[in-house]
Write a structure and sequence with these properties.
alpha+beta
């Protein structure tokens, strides 16, 4: 009986090992997916304009965009994360631009504290559906911004509205697009230096 019992146990042990390896492989795969989900989501949003994420273009690509005789009103909105001692606002709250033409908006930022602060701007477009047509060529939001104590700066955004917006029936009634920014503080290391990214 003993030989039969051990030979019956061998296939069960083999199946248990196989199930264990499959479960471990699945857990490692899910962990890996968790790490790449954020960059993949960011790339998806930038490619599609999903969730109000504007498009990006090089200056060369922007120079080949057809400029239309139609115009669009652009409204600029600015916000600061609660507790961040900055002032931040657009120099003009609205601009009327020709669709397809590059335009520049200026934002003023001031650090009102007695020490340097690094901030990072998140951004959004409203209505969400217009984000795939709102294209940035240059923006302070592409990098972190460090302001010394009581320093003031002017920060430009160069953008255009893609002429394809006029062919989108979902946006036929849109006459204004809102570009909204929120500045958030960036965590500093104990030495006061920005952490390595």
């Amino acid at each position: 009986m003993a030989p039969n019992a051990s030979s019956a146990r061998a296939p069960i042990d083999g199946r248990n090992r196989r199930v264990g390896l499959i479960a471990l492989s699945f857990a490692v795969l899910m962990l890996g997916m968790g790490y790449i989900a954020v960059p993949l989501y960011r790339m998806f949003c930038q490619a599609t304009g999903f969730n109000g994420t504007p498009q990006r273009a090089t200056a060369l690509a922007a120079s080949h965009i057809k400029v239309l005789d139609r115009t669009m009103s652009i409204r600029f909105d600015s916000n600061i994360d609660p507790g961040m001692p900055w002032r931040f606002h657009p120099e003009a709250t609205t601009a009327t631009v020709r669709i397809g033409a590059r335009a520049m908006a200026l934002f003023d930022a001031e650090n009102t504290s007695d020490h340097a602060i690094t901030g990072s701007a998140s951004y959004n477009i409203q209505p969400d559906e217009a984000a795939r047509y709102f294209t940035k060529v240059q923006c302070f939001c592409f990098t972190q911004q460090t302001l010394a104590a009581h320093q003031s700066v002017r920060m430009p955004v160069i953008y255009f509205v893609n002429p394809k917006i006029v062919d989108d029936p979902d946006l036929a009634d849109v006459r204004q697009i809102t570009l909204s920014y929120t500045f958030h503080p960036v965590a500093q290391s104990a030495s006061g230096q920005k952490p390595a990214v």
